[in-house]
Design brief:
With 298 residues, the protein is of the alpha/beta class. The protein folds into 2 domains: 123 residues, ATPase, nucleotide binding domain (Nucleotidyltransferase, domain 5); 152 residues, Nucleotidyltransferase, domain 5, CATH 3.30.420.40. The protein has 11 helices and 12 strands. A 5-stranded mixed sheet has the order 3-2-1-4-7. β1 and β2 form a beta hairpin.
């Protein structure tokens, strides 16, 4: 494969799946793949999953100059360390960048997965041209990414944007983060599956019109989702809130209703300026953002 300029790999490590792409110098996706992330088995298993993904690209003849990795949880992007991840097993100060750099001898960037997702949508996707943008990834948990005043916002420790851990019910369901009533305990794929006694969110959303139990679950989901979005809108005053992740497909038919509620219940100036949309790159937003971010290191 002959190209001019750097080809980078982007790897998005989620609670259940690892999604990866090879990105051309012109930001075209050359190849994509998905593998089990094995995050519930611990960091060493995730490292093996990353190795497997990279080897697939190598076997396809793709010569890359850098690897970007997006990972759920608290990430120190300067040191390339994943401090912890509430939905991953046995993660504590994992030196992910050093591991993968040692494995493949190329520059490696490590960032929170939702920050990667918002970066891609801001640079080349549904949020292009916006100066203030919030993105929510609705998967195993709920991640958040922020573009504020025209830059990726990381906060003092790199942890800004953990919007899934906003408490919307102060005496609510305990969360692995140590808090109670976190947003993601009510509106993530895990939350829906738990309420539906193991039924997949896809089936719950698709059958809500014919199964009364599922209808009730979705009604409660939307109520909690709207509560969280009003608070997020009032806090950050974004031009746009983007929704991505596996749950978004089922949620899309309710998007007009959700948008109308949030716009009418937010501060008037905030609501008048706000749009709520799904991401352009869907489940590839995170891996695309990781591949774009590592270009800054080359």
């Amino acid at each position: 494969m002959v190209t001019k300029g750097p080809i980078t790999l982007g790897i998005d490590i989620g609670g259940t799946k690892l999604k990866a792409i090879a990105l051309s110098p012109h930001n075209e996706i050359l190849k994509e793949l998905s593998l089990p992330s094995q995050a519930d088995q611990g960091p060493d298993f995730v490292r093996k999953a990353v190795q497997e993904a990279v080897h697939i690209f190598q076997d396809a003849g793709i010569k890359f100059t850098g690897i970007g990795i997006g990972c759920a949880g608290s990430v120190d992007h300067h040191a390339g360390i994943v401090r912890n991840s509430p939905n991953f097993a046995h993660w504590s100060n994992v030196p992910l960048r050093d591991w993968i750099q040692g494995d493949f001898k190329v520059p490696v960037a490590v960032e929170n997965d939702a920050k990667c997702a918002v970066y891609s949508e801001w640079k080349v996707g549904a949020g292009k041209g916006c100066k203030n943008l919030v993105l929510l990834t609705l998967g195993t948990g709920i991640g958040g990414g922020l573009i504020l005043d025209g830059r990726l916002f990381r906060g003092a420790t790199g942890t800004a944007g953990e919007l899934g851990h906003l408490s919307i019910h102060t005496q609510g369901i305990p969360c692995p983060c140590g808090n109670q009533g976190c947003f993601e305990r009510y509106c993530s794929a895990t939350a829906v599956k738990n309420q539906a006694k193991g039924v997949s969110p896809k089936d719950v959303f698709s059958k809500a019109s014919i199964v009364p139990e599922y209808k009730k679950i979705i009604e409660e989901f939307i109520f909690n989702f709207q509560v969280a979005l009003v608070g997020i809108a009032n806090t950050f005053d974004p031009e746009i809130i983007l929704l991505g992740g596996a749950v978004t497909d089922g949620l899309s038919i309710y998007l007009d209703k959700i948008s109308e509620h949030v716009k009418s219940h937010a501060f008037p100036a905030v609501g008048a300026n706000l749009s709520i949309k799904t991401t352009q790159f869907k489940n590839l937003s995170g891996s695309l953002g990781a591949a774009l971010l590592v270009k800054e290191y080359l």
